[in-house]
Amino acid sequence: MIFSAFERTVARRYLRARRREGFISVIAGFSLAGIGLGVATLIIVMAVMNGFRAELMGRILGLNGHLGVSAPFTGGLADFDAIANRLRGIDGVVRVTPIIEGQAMATISGAASGALVRGIRPVDIRKHPALSKNIVQGDLKKFTSDRDIVVGHRFAERYGLRVGSMVTLIAPRSRVTAFGSVPRVKSFRVRAVFEIGMYEYDNSFLFTTLKAARSFFKTGSGKISSLEVMLTSPDLVKTVRRQISEKAKSPVRIVDWQRTNASFFNAIQVERNVMFLILTLIIVVAAFNVISGLIMMVNDKGRDIAILRTMGATRGMIMRIFLLSGMAVGVFGTVAGFVLGLAFSLNIETIRQWLQTLTDSQLFQAEIYFLSQLPAKVDPVEVAAVTGMALGLSFLATLYPSWRAGRLDPVEALRYE
After folding, report:
1. Is the alpha carbon torsion for 401, 406, 408, 410 positive or negative?
2. pTM for the predicted model, two decimal places
3. Which of 98, 52, 58, 53 is nearest to 78 (CA)?
4. Is 386 helix (H, G, I), strand (E, B) or coil?
5. 159-215 per-position pLDDT tens digit
6. Exposed, middle or buried by CB within 10 Å (0-12, 13-18, 19+), for 167?
7. Contact of 268 with 278, CB cutoff 8 Å
């Protein structure tokens, strides 16, 4: 073994400080706690940031698709069924959905708010996993008429809507008549309520039939806003993009999720990197505490070191004793932080609910953070990197005090004893 039984015994006794050396033991305890809290905090924050990214990507791409195919100019995409059939034959394409999308004003019992109305065929909405698997009220099988509409949970909650309630939509473009401009108004009956878990979608997205949306927004006969293309993996967009251009056989405009949400996901990545650097400083500060504690221990144990040297202990043995003492603090602190960080990350939503009940306050506002639950996704590679970094810093922190202990002159240490 690297450390002999003698070195392990002496290092263990040095860590168990006696009454007059209690201050050194307190410093070692704070160093251990600092390393543990630093490792735990870093694991928890990285898990939450990964969870945010994964949840947002899953929900955004689950509802909007990985690629959008539209006409190169305004006016809508014509002959979309033929294009959609050709695109479905591309490897990696899971679903191609024609949609008509537009902004409208929704009015319910005198209250009004803006909403994004999306027209979709009844057969397509039933095949849409992000919607069909998250229906909390009603049934998509009853979504058949041009007067039917599907609304989000928070939208329904805000206006007290239930299945069977009426929602009136006002189009942004008015209808020109002999008596002037008249707003286009159409009433719909709520057939189902969905809850995706992302505040923006649950609060402002409304779904009606493709035919009703075409009539409401006046997109023109046989035209749609775009084709929503879902792939087996979001990483295939570059490969599939080229094939779509070839298969479309007509000029089209292709927008992928990376371009549409680039600023959003880049902001999350930058914030994640900055948080990693800032929280790493906690471990660095704890490592400096290890250095200061070991230096004080070396000064306090100068007489003992001198006696060990006169009894035959080599400089290497003295160095390894203090190296082992410092590494013990680092290893135990890292292990404690590892266990605490994983336990907290894997149960973070339960802990949040408990803290909200205890403090009687809202700790995670869905309106601010877009999600209704606090997500966490533990990445084993990141956890291993954090653990390795903590152990590495702890080891580096012990080198100088150990070298200083090994270089101690027994004669000088015992001169005034």
Report:
1. positive
2. 0.66
3. 98
4. helix
5. 989 999 999 998 877 666 655 566 788 999 999 999 887 788 888 999 999 999 988
6. buried
7. no
